[in-house]
Amino acid sequence: MSEYNPTLVSLNDFLNSRTKELKKLRSELNTRRGNCQLTQTLPKHLRRRTMSHDIHRVPYRMRKHIEKEMGKNPPRKSKLKSRQSRRKPNNMLKEYERRSKKHVWLETHIWHAKRMHMHRLFGYKLAYRTNEKLLRGCYKLAARSSVIYDESYYQCYECVAKQQNLITFFSKLIDNQSGINFKTIGNRLFLRGNRQGSSRIILDREKKVVCPFRFIWDYIPFDSNIEEYKNKTRKIWIWIHPACRTLLVDLINSLNTKNYISFHELENQPCRFSIIGPSSINVLQKVLWFDFEKDNEKEKEKEKEKEIIKDNAMETETETETETETETEEDSALKKRTMVWKSLKKINKPASLLEGCILSLDVINPKEFTVKRAREREQEFQFHQKNLTRIEKDKYEKLSKKIQYKWSSEFSKSKLWDKQTRKKLLNGIERTNKKIDEEASKKLFPNVRSSKAYPNQKIPVLIVQTAGSKTLGFGSGFDVIIPKGYAKQFWVALVHSGAVPIGMRERHRIETETGRRFFPDDFIEAPSFYQSATKLIVSEKESQKWEKTHKGKRVNYKKFGINSPFFPDFSSLLKSSTNHNNDNDKDTDNSNNNNSKNTNQIQTTQYTNTFNVEFVENINSLKTNIDSESFIPITITAIQKGSLKRNAHLYFPTKDESNKITKKLKFNQKWSKNDNHCLVGFITTGMFSLARGCGFAIGFIRKKDLIKNQNACKNSIVLVRNTNGAIFYPAKFEFCKN
Amino acid sequence: MDNYQFAIGFPNHLPPKRNDIYVSSKRSVKSLLKRADKLLIEETKVKQINVYALGKAINKAIDFALDLQEKYCNQLKLTTSTSTVELFDEYQPKTEDLEPITQKRYNSAIHIKITRKYNFQIPQNQQITTSQNKKN
Description:
The complex is a heterodimer.
Chain A: H1 11-30, H2 63-72, H3 83-86, H4 89-99, H5 109-113, E1 116-121, E2 124-130, H6 137-144, E3 147-150, E4 155-162, H7 163-173, E5 197-204, E6 209-217, E7 233-240, H8 245-255, E8 262-265, E9 271-276, H9 280-287, H10 292-315, H11 329-343, E10 358-363, H12 383-386, H13 390-405, H14 419-427, H15 429-442, E11 459-466, E12 477-482, H16 487-496, E13 500-501, H17 504-514, H18 519-522, H19 533-548, H20 557-560, H21 571-575, H22 582-594, H23 599-605, E14 631-638, E15 649-651, H24 655-662, E16 679-689, E17 694-702, H25 703-708, E18 717-721, E19 729-735
Parallel strand pairs in A: 3-13
Antiparallel strand pairs in A: 1-2, 3-9, 4-7, 4-8, 5-6, 6-7, 9-12, 10-11, 11-12, 14-17, 14-19, 15-16, 15-18, 16-17, 18-19
Chain B: E1 4-7, E2 20-22, H1 29-42, E3 48-54, H2 58-71, E4 76-93, E5 101-116, H3 131-135
Domain POP1 C-terminal (chain A): 679-734
Keywords (chain A): Nucleus, tRNA processing
Pfam family, one (chain A): POP1_C
């Protein structure tokens, strides 16, 4: 060991021992460090957050190096585009296809979703009410101008067989046992295909399920003998509500064991709009249009040719007669339909036509011409009569009276019945829409309806008349049947030309104003009663609201003796055989006192039953089969003031009270616990009717009680008690025939 | 005719405007007078009132028009015209053997025009039951 410091430094030894360190330093300066990413080698003021998933935010010199690294673990692409692009109609349709297994969208869904409240009903998403307040206002619109409603959720089925087989098959199914005979399918009103019929089908005899439906026959010439067509194959189209669809299909498949009939769902189902009101003719005339003047031009040309031929015939007499151009059947039928369409302008109310008559037209796509926007809900009745000359007016007046007398089946012959035409129309939509848009973008001014030639494609369309009430003449209109794929274009054109769109709640109100029952809400005899809008939407909201409010500030239903305040409970009427005894009432009150909070739970278990419904013409024609339990539908009108509401209770008055009411003396009576009136029935829909100027409702009465109290029913008076309180309102009732 | 169901035919008239009064047999003369009062006094834009009636209701319409004349002390001008209207009824068969029948029938109609004369003044003795007076 050397104990002294060295005096000399040898460079070689010094450098050799330090080269290793220097080499390491250099290498580490050139290469990057261990675990950090390339972007982290940048100084802090140059680093950006988006460099991790977006290459264009990285400085240019480092891009290549980073691309190699990103190739191993590429960043996750965000599936979501911007919210604005996600909510465009094309993208929304693609998203819908993913969701369409649970509930189905109609074709006009996107238009409705922007303007109405949508709800899930019967497996579809339907418009329940508008964003505006239109409950009372829809009466005015339906009585003076027009209103439009989308009905294309009704399913269409097709039956093909020989005529005789079809008639015998359906005669077993149709409801003929009730007091009023419903018309069978083989009725000569409908057989020739010129009119639409409606009837009731029994879907299940044990469970007593009945539902209504509408049907149209195929085309037959009007003057032909029906017996010749017994063994020829014919078609029927049936429209039925989607709530009863599965029951129908199961029934017919079970009966159709030997392939008696071919029954299947229509491919490419047509859409259906219903237009109600007196100006519905006006609205349709603006939208459904085809070249009138082209037909006139043809005739003018023919006349000119004839004149030329006559002039030439004077010179050469040896020439034979000219060939008389025989008109084909199609041309003659076209002429008749155009004349009928023009003469419809003279008819001011659709109620004056025959019930259920059908017209078929071949129409130009309404996207090709723009419809002038109507001013805010104005009537324009003088519109169509300005452009006619006096001679034309007389011609069409005579025709318009002939139509009301006789409606031949040649007016209803159409190409919609062909499978292939429907397919062609569906396949050709995109092409035509693109062409129209391209041509429109080139022009300076938008297309106005003119007499120039339009492309060849014409769309077959059916127009069906619907009858309103038979006493007031209110609620009549037209149904328009359109092939699939063209619904949106027709809908937008119809709305622009003056028809106001409504939802299901307003449609329900218009039906009750006419005096008829609306299908799922007023029909006890089908299980769709418990899937209807009043049960799922209205009564649930009311019950939730009631439970939230404080005890002292809400209606005390126990005190008034009402067991089910939010939904009518018909099965409770059947259990208690005698309603007069006070002991029975006390028992039911005690049982409900214990279960004050669980009232809703008790009632839900009972909500699966359907009830038997019978129709009666007069009180005298009541049959005295007391064994069968059934309900009778009635329409109730208030005598004095008072509006009748939903779920109200119905009672029969005593002799003294009915005498008071008929003599128009003062009648003030209230309900108390020791009341002797017997509960007879409930109300399903009630309101203040603007057409009549008094309260109006539709309800059901138990048949047994009617037969017992026949003496009291001579004046046909009934007492109504709303769920709000204890006042009795006197009212008259009549038997319903629908 | 038990095998048939009767469907009545409706007259083919335009929906009512502000001027029009359509008289039916169930309507009382009192309510008609109230409506005419409103139109003549409150609404000065209305130049004439049209009254229409069919069949049985012609008597009521005539009574109403003459009562109005008395009420306003002969300051109104009445012009009438009568006409016939065609109505088409239908008998719809209930069984499958029969054919439907349409029936044409005629009914008489009346049309009364009520206008104010140039020296029209509201008489002072009259009790006008308009909404303004009800509050007082």
